[in-house]
Structures are given as structure tokens and as C-alpha cells.
Amino acid sequence: MKSIPLPPALLALFLTPLAAFGAAATAPAPNLARLAIEATNPLPFARASQTIELSAKDLAPLNEKAFANIHILDAAGREVLAQAVDTDFDAFHLPDTVIFQADFAAGETKKFTATVGAKQVYRKEQFKAFGRFNRERFDDFVWENDRIAHRTYGKGLETWQGEPLTSSTVDIWTKRTTRMVVNDWYLSDDYHVDHGEGADFYSAGVSRGNGGSGLWATDKLWVSKNFVASRVLANGPIRVLFELDYDAFDVNGLKVTETKRISLDGGQNLDHYVSTYRPATPGPLTVGAGLKKVAGAQKDFNAARGTLTAWEKVEKNQGMQGIALVVDPKALDKQVEDDRNFLMLVKAAPDNTVSYWAGFFWDKSGQFADYAAFKTYVDQFAQGLAAPVKVTVKTE
Question: How many Cα atoms occupy the beta-carbon half-sphere of 7 within 13 Å?
Fold first, then answer.
């Protein structure tokens, strides 16, 4: 058989010493950097499920671009559930923050370590927060954590012949289980009946529901229609974070568009809302954050804390619920109401953004003993916003 000469490049490959291959194939040395994290609760009461955020700057010494590979250990070396979050929704949708949670006693300091390892892969039972766009239910966006659940309405619902609704309200879905249920409830399509986990007993309608908002002008609340676009920035297991876009709506002759960013962390009963408004003509804006007014409700307002709570009957004789709003008291204008809502009026920042929190609890959930206990939670939540957990990060 006639031999076929090897090309020079291939011949050189065969003649290369094996040691050279060993050097080339050796995996990079593991990242051995570690960060020491110290977190302190500055307040004189216990705080459960506190979310600690580590920024890209904090994490830079780890020299790890894939934040899903970052792990958190407690002082005993045990793994703590952590989540990489994309807060800026940049072109690559890359996470820029890592979050984890801890419980704190009054004045307690805890220590943690951040390391690099394999990519985080979560089990279903680890999820404490979840949300998604639901096209099959006329463009709902639904979200939940281990304590509460909500939905709000997309454009598809405006023209549904069965039960059309034009509203930028926030609906309440009561839960008495810590597991994620919204997918299952949509699947069974029987979520107005409590089968042991809770149900949708709430009729938000065209009110502000539990945390919906609008703009206040000429002693009137002006509101948008249903959202027209949505995007998810983070989807558990600790935090669900998403944005909703609203088309231009009329505010006493001024056209204004809105993007609303909503987040909910595990272990909490209050959602965080950040609305960004874009008026056709620049000028100061006053936002009305609202709670649906229910006949006979007991209302409690604390201007110094920036809190508004109410205790009301749940529809269909399904017990009682506490509802709440929390705003920055420095931005608070006043508390008012209209025919449908209890409102807190807040001055928008110079960039036309406003930040507030809203949420609820159901007395059948077992989360709080009574309305007084819920009010204490809301009051301490407001104090916590003014005095967050203090975090320091150092390279070990």
C-alpha cells in the first residue's frame, strides 16, 4: 500500500512532546478568593427574612463574572440560599447583584462568607418567590411569595367579551400555604374556591386594589389602563422582580406614560413598587398610592412613619384581612380618599420616580395573630426601611 505523507502541521502535532499537551490541557486554577461579610441589625427588635444585597463592586474581589456561581456560607460553613439578580436589565441580561436572607435578633450581628463554586441549581421546594406573564388568562401578570399572591391585568382583558375590565389595579390572592401555587391555580381554573390553600376572594375592579397607583391633579386621581408590555428581571428563589409598561394616559390634559417595577421577596408581606413617569411636558408630579376602600373598614394612618393600614372583611364571608401602604414620610404630602380608595399622596422625585410598599395578610393564613400584630409588623417594616441591616464586605 502506498503511504500518504502527513502535512507538516499535522506531523508537527504528532511530534509534540506529551508534556506539552499536559500543560495545555490543565484546567485553570480554582478561584480561591473569599469574602468576609458582616451584617448587623441596628434596631431593638427581631427582624425575620432580611434580604442582604451584594453589589458587583462588593463581589469584584472574587473575580467571577458568572454571579450564579457565587455561594454564601454562614458562620458554621453551611450553605445559605443565594440568588443572582439582574437589576438593570442590560443588553446581555446579566446578573449584577447577589442576594441572600437571614433572620436577626434585636441588635444582632451575623457573619457570612462568599465563595465561588458550581452554578446554582435550585430545587422546586426552595422557591420562596415566583411570577410570570399569563397570556392564556387574557394577559394577566401573576406573582407570589411564600406568604401572599397578586395579579394585575394586561391589555387582553380590556376586550375579552366574557368579562372585560380596563384597570391598572393590583388584585389580591389569599394564601395559607408557603408553597408556590399560582401555576396550579391557573391550571385547575377553580381559584375562586378555597381548596385548602387559599383562593381569589378579592374584587379589585377599577379601584387601586392593594397597591395600585395613579397621578393626583385637581383633587382627583387619574389612572392608566391595563399594562401593555412586561419583562421579568428575576424569578426566585428569593426575589421576583419584573416591570410593566403602561401607555400614555390623561392627567388633566397632560399625557403621561409609566413603567412600574415590582419586587417581592420571600418571607415578607409587602411588595416594593417603583413607578417611573414620563410626562409630555416637564413638571412636578404627585402620585396617589392606593388601597381599595371597603365599607366598614377600620383605617389607621401614621404620618410620622409613612404608614396606612386598614382592617376589613374579606368578600364571600371568608374572614378578615389587613392591608397596608408604606411610603417615605419625607416624600409624603397627605392622606386622602376618594369614592373607591384610601390614598397616600407622595411627591415624585425630580426624575419623576416614586417608591412605596404595599401588601396584606389574611387572618386564615396564621401569619399574624390579629390586626394589632399586623400593624406592628408594618410599623417595624417602616422602621427597617429607615434603618436597614448594615453590611460590610472585606476580602479574607
Answer: 2
Nearest residue to 194 (alpha-carbon basis) of 368, 367, 366, 364: 364
Mean pLDDT, the chain, integer: 92
Does residue 12 form part of some domain? no
pTM for the model: 0.91
pLDDT digits (tens, 9 = 90+) for 175-220: 999 999 999 999 999 999 999 999 999 999 999 999 999 999 999 9
9 in any annotated domain = no
Spatial contact of 185 and 144, defined as CB atoms under 8 Å apart: no
> For residue 348, which phi and psi values (nearest 5 degrees)?
-70, 150
Q: Is residue 28 part of a domain?
A: no
Given CA atoms 359, 363, 368, 369 in this order, what sign does their dihedral have? positive
| Tally of domains in the chain | 2
Is there a contact between 347 and 353 (Cβ–Cβ < 8 Å)? no
User: Taking a C-beta distance cutoff of 8 angstroms, is the pair 131, 173 a contact?
Assistant: no
Do the Cβ atoms of 262 and 244 come closer than 8 Å? Answer: yes
Q: Identify whether residues 155 and 257 lie together within a single domain.
A: yes
Confidence of residue 153 (pLDDT cuts 50, 70, 90): very high
- Closest by CA to 252, choosing from 277, 285, 276, is 285
**Which residue range is the domain that position 55 belongs to?**
35-120
Alpha helix (H) residue ranges in 52-208 = 56-59, 182-188
User: What's residue 91's pLDDT?
Assistant: 76
pLDDT in tens, 335-349: 999 999 999 999 999
